[in-house]
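Protocol step 4 of 5: obtain the predicted structure for the target chain.
Materials: sequence only (see below). No template structures provided, no constraints applied. The aim of this step is simply to have a reference model before the mutagenesis design in step 5. Sequence pasted as it appears in the construct record:
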Amino acid sequence: MSKDCQFCGTNFLIPESGSIVLNQKKSIKPLQLFVSHEDEETIIYRYKSKKELKTSLGVLLSSATTATSKDWLHILNLDSTQYLPISIQHLYERLDKPELGEIIQHGTFTSHLQPIVDMKNDEIYGYESLLRTEGENINPAELFSHAQRSGLQSMLDQKARRTAVKAKSDFLQKGQKIFINFLPSTIYVPEFCLQHTFQIVKEFNIDPADLVFEVVETEKITNVKHLKSILDTYKTSGMKVALDDVGAGYSTLEMLSLLKPDYLKIDRSYIQNCYEDLTSQDFLFQVMRRASNLGIKVLAEGIETRNEWDWLRELGVDYGQGYFIGKPAPLPKETINLLP
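Step 4 output (structure tokens):
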């Protein structure tokens, strides 16, 4: 189990003043920190303000190796109360963008819902939950990028999942699916890490079969065996799973028979102008043939024009999503009119 597991989803308070304790054998002495204690194993640096601490950590990181930046340290406040350990790099990032860290730790999120339509009957099949911040207009990509740099990915992932499940409970009917993104890198031991998700499902009394967890492919997972164990844990609990952006990265067609997702979402680059792009058409024919043989449903995302919709529908794609159908909104779009 990763060392991160014991601190997953735990709020972290940085005292306004105090000391940090580092491993002397691995860490480099920063230039602007006062050494109050030093022995064979540790060095203790005292700081008077968060601004001073940030500046000193910046000096340390500027001359540190990548390995050193990942070293863990402890923080002590003035009465020597010890806080949770944190890596040097993560602490610096949290001091650099404290407003983003506060949003993540306080969980001030909401879900915008984008409709997903059954292409055979033009009826709404479900919605994808897309994370948005409350009050402040912060790009979700910036928030997830900060979470990755500051070690808050697990916390953000957990709170995003809770927000999505709550949106399902508040706005969607029984039987309507909600597609929820998740980060495989935040799940170290599926049977343990996903208990938080299963508890949320029980709390909101949601039918597990209405939840579709889709892996965020941009992480470029290389440990396929681990990913399979995550997907299998979801499915064992009665939930559905999807591979997102199929075709853009690791989840190639050859992976489908191994991972056996319930749905695959085709990368939007293959949807754009698919009605006239022969290369995209060849890929889509392959996807449909392989998915049909494995009993996997296909969802085309990023549909923006009538021509794309019509061609994909003729191809036999199961579900569609994109601005042509409907944009993400705070409240679900209850009906869809796709007549010419």
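Step 4 remarks: Residues 3-96 form one domain. The two ends are 55 Å apart (CA to CA).
Proceed to step 5.
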